[in-house]
Structures are given as structure tokens and as C-alpha cells.
Amino acid sequence: MSAPDYSVGKKCVAECVGTYLLVLFGCGVVHSAVLTGSQSGLWQVAVVWGLAIMLAIYVVGGVSGAHINPAMTLAFAVRGRFSWRLVPPYIVAQLLGAFAAAATLFVLFSPWLVAKELEKNVTRGQPGSEVTAMCYGEYFPSPGPVAGATGSYSTEEAQRLKALVSEPVAFLAEMLGTLILATVVFAVTDARNREGPGRLAPVFIGLTVSALISFIAPLTQACFNPARDFGPRLFAFLVGWGEIALPGPSSTGFFTVYIIAPVVGALLGAHLYDLALRPAEADSLNQEV
Fold first, then answer.
1. Mind listing the pLDDT tens digit for each residue in 242-286?
2. CB atoms closer than 10 angstroms to residue 268
3. 8-279: CATH topology
4. What is the mean predicted confidence (pLDDT) over 162-183?
5. What's the start-to-end Cα distance of the chain, in Å?
6. How far apart are CA 217 and CA 280, in angstroms?
7. Sequence-separated (6 or more) residues with CB below 8 Å from residue 66
């Protein structure tokens, strides 16, 4: 999604606002599900994430191109569809938007966070408090089953759950999910693609994310976006979760799984589409005929 010729400042404000909307609605529904039990299943959470992406793209896409994801910004730049000089300010704007959204949600849900910690008998910043930290940063596997179980936090159940998803598997899941997302983004926004959905591209991007969340979220909470994870994770680190938020239970996992894997996946997806799947230009087709 290329951005029109607006000033760098206006584009960055748009990226900040777009990422803010994405994280506000997306992490907001995670807060709602984890802390209040108001969502009846994963699909409800996934759909809200998809809607959040659609809305963010429609709101700011006309100004910044609505990357709202550092991995996508890098993918566009590597494939020559975005200026490298705009990459650093875009990423900073995306992180600021995600951080601000996390701060907003913390203000709104603070009593609910305390209530959940009391219910699970955990202390913020101590082992077990990932049951509330998961509202901000992400964990593999998702602590959702432990957070949603009745009664106090069970160390045994948490250890059993952690054994189900290794760091390499989590890396693969995040890389694959972002690869698919990037391939779809490049396909539905490509003017050469006559089968593309045109102005409905944000809808298909959002639905892709919803579908990916539906099967990857139990493994990694389904990030696909370094800003979405690191901005809220950093906020959680600063307001009391400490090392439970950053770096998290795995000293390297937050970096490999939630930053490196999405970037690698986005780059692979961009190259897959451009080099193997992108339709030829009309002139090239005429020459072949």
C-alpha cells in the first residue's frame, strides 16, 4: 500500500493513529475476554482484530498507506514499493501508537486487572502474572487456558501448557502467519492483479488476520506485528509487570518469535508474491502472445 505525497509528519501521525486504533480494539478485546469473560470463543476475538485492521486501514490508508506494522513497512521497502528514508519514522510512529493504546487500556481496565490477579492469587511482576500481562505482550503458548480456569493460578497446569509449544515451533507459527498475511496484502493491493478486490482490500486483509488468529492464537497469541507486541509489552514492563513482560518467561522468545519471525515472514511473503505469483504487465502479455 503506497502512500500519497503528504508530508512525513502527516504520514507519521496517520501511522500512529492507525496503529493506535488497531491495538486499542485488538488488545481491548483481549482485555475483555481475559478479564471479564465476555467473549464466548476465539472467533469473537479474531473477528474484532480483523475489524480493527479494516477500520484502521480505511481511516488512515489514504494518508500513510496504513502499514501499521513494522514488518510490512520493511517488506514494502525491500521490494522497492516504499522509501527507505521513511522506514525509521514509520516504525517509531507505529510503536508510539501501540504504546499509547496500551496506556489507554490500562487506565480503562485497571480494576479488572487487579481483580483477575486476586482471583488467580498472583502478584504482578511475579511468576504467574502472565495471566494479566497477556493482555499487553504475547506469550507462547497462550496463557489463556490458565487465565480462564476457575480458582487460583496452577503452576502445574502452566508448566504442562508451556511444554506444548517450543520456541522453534512458535517462531515457525509466527513466520508462517506473517508470510501468508504479507502475500495477501501484496496481492489485494496490486494494481496488476485484475482479480483483486479494489476498495475492499482492507476487508480481505482483516479477514485474513481473523482466519490466522483462529488457529495460531492458541500457540503464540498470533502477533504478526512487532509494534503490536513490543509497544504494549514495553508499557507493561514499565507499569509493574517487569521481567514477566520484558523479556518474559523465555529470555529470547519475545525477540525471536515476536520481532524477528514476523519480519522474516513478511519479507518471504513479499518475495513470494512479487517473484512467483505477481501477474505480468499487459505489455509483457502482449509480447508473449
1. 999 999 998 899 999 999 999 999 999 999 999 999 999 865 544
2. 18
3. Glycerol uptake facilitator protein (1.20.1080)
4. 97
5. 31
6. 36
7. 1, 14, 15, 18, 56, 57, 59, 60, 202
CA-to-CA distance for 91 and 195, rounded, in angstroms?
A: 31
Residue ranges of the domains in the chain?
8-279
* DSSP conformational letter for 143: S
User: How far is the C-alpha of 212 from the C-alpha of 106, rounded, in Å?
Assistant: 26
**Model pLDDT for residues 215-235, shown as the tens digit of each residue:** 999 999 999 999 999 999 999
**How far, in Å, CA of 152 to CA of 179, rounded?**
38
Q: Is the distance from CB of 138 to CB of 229 less than 8 angstroms?
A: yes
**Rounded Cα gap, residues 4 and 241, in angstroms:** 40
Q: What's the confidence (pLDDT) of residue 64? A: 97
Report field, pTM of the whole predicted structure over 0.85: yes
C-alpha cell at 145: 487456558
Contact status, residue 112 vs residue 38, Cβ threshold 8 Å? no
Q: How far apart are CA 234 and CA 279, in angstroms?
A: 41
Q: How far is CA 286 from each of CA 36, 151, 191, rounded to the nearest angstrom?
A: 60, 68, 18
Task: Report the distance separating Cα 249 and Cα 216, nearest Å.
Answer: 20
Cell of 279: 501477474
Sequence-distant (≥ 6) Cβ neighbours of residue 81 within 8 angstroms: 2
The three cell numbers of residue 280 are: 505480468
- Where would I find the H helices in the chain? 8-31, 42-64, 70-78, 87-120, 130-133, 144-148, 155-162, 167-188, 201-220, 226-236, 253-255, 261-272, 282-288
Residue range 38-87, pLDDT digits in tens: 987 899 999 999 999 999 999 999 999 999 999 999 999 999 999 999 99
